[in-house]
Write a structure and sequence with these properties.
alpha+beta, Beta-Lactamase, 2 domains, seven-stranded mixed beta sheet, four-stranded antiparallel beta sheet, 7 helices, protein phosphatase
């Protein structure tokens, strides 16, 4: 591209030089020749006037009479009828001469000749000057073309590097502008694309992290159910019951994945329905029973029964599972699930008897990567996102003891 720009600008300058300098040289040459011829003509007129004045005074015409009118390189010859030819100066050699002939009223003739050597020398000097000017113009054009090519090529190289960075997975916008509207437009589009790619990559990473975290608990519960099935292989009824629960776990896994994908694509996707809250609570008691028994802890139920809430059962189950898991990891003692009314909503509180949430965390526990211990810090953030996407909300009501509350819409049928 640089070479093309240099060649283009150089070609334009050469055309301009040819178009202007050649006619200018011809005009200048003609002007110099005409000026020299005019001087020769004027000299002939002056000599003729001197000759006529001497003839009128009856004086003889000699070379000294008009010697002062003869310049260097000039030759003057005077012919008067009845008198010998009078001359002054040295006759120039060559065929290309400047010559002027003037005739008087009495028949006298004055001839002035001058060599073209000085004229040709002056023409050559002027042509050399024009050539130097043209050469300087070409050099200046080359320098300007090189500078302009670098000025335009540098942003293009920079934009190419930006596009290459985007292709290699580095979506950071550079926010560079170059003072050229077209290039600035390209840079703006690349920056916008970089921001869009960054958002997409963040969303994909967030989805992967959320999915891996949220699937961990159902997979653990499913694994425990399968272990129980293996241990009770000789009791068909028990195996059937445990297999049914395992299938429910699989359905829950499917629902979790579907819900995460739906929330990722459209957080406002309307999927809320009226459902029996007792069924979701019962499911949580069954799923977490083995884990609680292993750790010597109890899950206690308090409050209302037979409540019809509005939401997505799978989402509510996922949020409650996250809160119970959080109590298992960070709390102690009995875990209490308390269901109570609150205006037009129903509230499911999850409380334990542990040390509670550190005061320096407070509501920051719902922020990603914020955790009071060596955990991922994702669970509560995903739980709040799921609750809000489902039309509810998740809040921390008390630091000590730690009380998390899930607010759900309540069906008018209650």
């Amino acid at each position: 591209m640089k070479r093309r720009m240099i060649n283009s600008l150089l070609g334009v300058v050469l055309v301009v030089v040819v178009v202007f300098c050649v006619p200018l040289a011809l005009v200048e040459k003609r002007t110099i020749v005409n000026s020299a011829q005019d001087r020769v003509d004027a000299a002939a007129v002056r000599v003729l006037a001197l000759v006529e004045s001497r003839l009128a005074a009856g004086e003889p015409v000699t070379g000294r009479a008009f010697e002062s009118q003869v310049t260097e390189g000039s030759y003057v010859e005077v012919q008067v009828p009845g008198q010998p030819v009078v001359s002054a100066g040295e006759r120039p050699a060559g065929n290309h001469l400047l010559k002027a002939v003037e005739r008087g009223n009495s028949g006298e003739t004055v001839t002035v000749e001058q060599s073209r050597e000085d004229v040709d020398h002056e023409i050559a000097n002027n042509l050399l000057l024009l050539g130097v000017v043209a050469l300087l113009a070409v050099q200046a054009a080359v320098a300007l073309a090189v500078w302009q090519a670098k000025r335009l090529a540098r942003p293009l190289t920079d934009l190419a590097e930006t596009a290459e960075r985007l292709g290699s997975g580095d979506p950071r916008p550079r926010d560079r502008r170059y003072g050229v509207p077209e290039l600035d437009r390209v840079a703006e589009v690349l920056d916008t694309s970089a921001e869009r790619i960054a958002r997409m990559l963040t969303a994909e990473r967030r989805l992967a992290a959320d999915a891996s975290h949220q699937l961990r608990t159902p997979l653990t519960a499913l694994s425990m159910r399968l272990e129980e099935i293996t241990a009770l292989a000789e009791e068909p009824e028990t195996v059937k019951e445990e297999a049914t629960i395992a299938l429910q776990q699989v359905e829950r896994l499917t629902d979790v994945v579907q819900r995460l994908l739906t929330t990722q694509r459209d957080p406002r996707s309307p999927t809320a329905v009226a459902f029996d809250l007792d069924e979701v609570i019962k499911q949580q008691v069954e799923e977490w029973g083995p884990t609680l028994r292993e750790q010597g802890r109890v899950l206690s139920l308090e409050g209302l029964h037979g409540v019809t809430a509005v939401g997505t059962p799978g989402t509510v189950a996922q949020v409650l599972a996250t809160l119970i898991e959080n109590s298992l990891m960070h709390g102690a003692g009995t875990i209490t699930l308390r269901i109570r009314p609150s205006g037009t909503s129903v509230v499911v509180e999850v409380q334990d008897q542990g040390a509670g949430v550190p005061p320096d965390l407070g509501n920051r526990v719902f922020e990603r990567a914020v955790s009071g211990r060596n955990s991922t810090g994702i669970g509560l953030a995903v739980a709040r996102d799921l609750a809000e996407a489902d039309g509810g909300r998740l809040e921390l009501l008390s630091l000590k003891p730690a009380v998390f509350a899930l607010f759900l819409g309540r069906s008018h049928q209650d």
